[in-house]
Amino acid sequence: MRRIGATVCFVLTCALAAASIPISVGREPIYDAVLYPVNAVALGLSGALILTHRRAQPIGWLLTVMGLDAAFVEFTEGYGYHPAWAAAATAEWLTNWTNYFGIGGTAIVVLLFPHVSRIRRFAVGVASVAVVLLMVGAAFGHASDPAFGSGVNPYAVDGLEPVYLAGQVLFLACLLAAIGSVIVRFRRSSGVEHQQLKWVAYALFLLALAAVPAIFWFNDSALVQIAIALVVPLLPAAICVAILRYRLYDIDLIINRTLVYGVLTVLLTAAYLGTVLVVGAVVGRGSSWATAGATLAVAVTFRPLRARVQDLVDRRFRRARFEALARVDAFVDALRAGEADPEDLEELLRDVLAQPGLEVRYLPPGAGYVAGENELLVERAGVPLAIVGGPQGRGPEGREPEGRGTGGGSRLREEVVARAGLAIEIARLRAEVRRQLAEVEASRARIVAAGYEERRRLERDLHDGAQQRLVSIGLTLRNAQFELGGNPAIDAAVEQLGVAIAELRELANGIRPAYLDDGLDVALRELAERTPLRVDVHVGAERYPSDVESTAYFVACEALANTVKHAGATGVAVRAERRDGHLVLTVRDDGAGGARPAEGTGLRGLADRIAAQGGRMRVESEPSAGTTVVAELPCAS
């Protein structure tokens, strides 16, 4: 029923407002005939929207009725402009006293917004009495005589002037109390209520700003009349936005823009007039050079002056935004100077936006991505760079984030991210380089693993194929030698066959020893037994990935071979252990030392083999202090 009632009232408001325009045009200024019906529609629409979404909010009904009353006043006023029409005098009379319902309702709406307290409920009662006294005094007293075309209220009764005066006094007191209550509540409030009151305070400020010149020049200036007609609908619109909480935090941006462009307009106007006066004094008044010079001065100073005014306004009225953007600018400057790390950007954004859950995910080239709720797709020169998103917490200074509505993203975040575009691009490029390096390392590790697997296959083929056949041939020759007796040719063949088998076994062992199947400890101990030096092995039975064990084994082989050939050592210690997710292999001898990895191919080849596994090698070889080779190979836990 409420929706139906609100809809009916709004439809009647629109009909009366539309009907008032054609009967008023030509009888009053065009802006008066059009703008005030628009105000009536704004009141009715605001009330209808509030009743539709907030049924328990009494302001909705009050605004709806005020809109209907304003449209009725405009219609009866236009009708009263035609004395020849039936009941024209009555229509004029209705206009002059029903108008006070809308005037008094303004103070009541402000007192009721956004909810009423016990003290303000009393003020609402007083304001209602004031409205009744004004309406009665205007309808039946001589106080409204000047408003009639004839100069006399046809329904006036002598002695009611004090009623009208009492209504004026009470209304003025209630209006001041309403404005004062908004100021007090605004200073004491926080969060959503603070933003709601900010909308109403902004509308009241603009109304007061327009009312000051209207007191002195309303009847003499069409500009003042237009300004009043334009500003009046802002109050119901602000109340509607505040109650419905639609784009609630946009008020900060609106106030910011109003202050910036208001100050900018005053300064540029002053600059223009000053330039005209100065140049005119030089080249003569009325010269086109004065106008051209003033226009040029305004055009040149607009951008730097706007930036300066914006900074001053942000510093005073949007401190959180100013400090956030200043920190981002400082970070970008430090990044350009090489004094900051791009990887610190995410932590900076979390800090300046007070959103601990915020994440920056960099996109690879050509990646397609559609930003979801609370996510922001960052682009630079049309190229997608990253996704900035995450749950929105409370904003700077303990406020809720500046958003595009109750579920929208943060406007402050958009501004901060736009200002940090260069840093985001640098961080994305570094992330892309790291990703490509990781792919190269993984690819190199896969190639090494494939090489090891191929070597194992060759080892099995040699052991199970050619080597076994040669052994069989040797046994056959031995049988033939036994049956035929001593034969130098057969003896030579058997001897050469033995050499071939030994070389084949050595080749197979160089590819990958079968002992590694039993673990690194077994393989290194077997290697120590074949080394013509005393070798102490400390490994243990722990197993590691196959490719890691193979690399560690061949590192030990090369290190021991270098020790035997060049070190002149009497003993070697080989140790392998897991440390911080790495297999650390240490080969230490007591030889002459002085090894130079950069000058030999053996140690350099070891370094390349270790790097292929994503590891690193360190050689310590001071003269007369022995040589220590340390290989660190990453291994899964």
Automatic annotation (TrEMBL):
Highest rank taxon of the organism: Bacteria
Keywords: ATP-binding, Kinase, Membrane, Nucleotide-binding, Phosphoprotein, Transferase, Transmembrane, Transmembrane helix, Two-component regulatory system
Gene Ontology terms for molecular function: ATP binding; phosphorelay sensor kinase activity; protein dimerization activity
Residue stretches spanning the membrane: 33-52, 59-77, 97-115, 122-143, 163-187, 199-218, 224-246, 258-283
Pfam families in UniProt: HATPase_c (PF02518), HisKA_3 (PF07730)
EC class (word): transferase
This protein's record includes keyword Phosphoprotein: yes
GO CC, one annotated term: membrane
Reaction catalysed by this enzyme: ATP + protein L-histidine = ADP + protein N-phospho-L-histidine
Residue ranges of the region described as Disordered: 389-411
Domain Histidine kinase/HSP90-like ATPase residues, every copy: 547-637
Assigned EC number: 2.7.13.3
Name recorded for this polypeptide: histidine kinase
Native source species: Cryptosporangium phraense
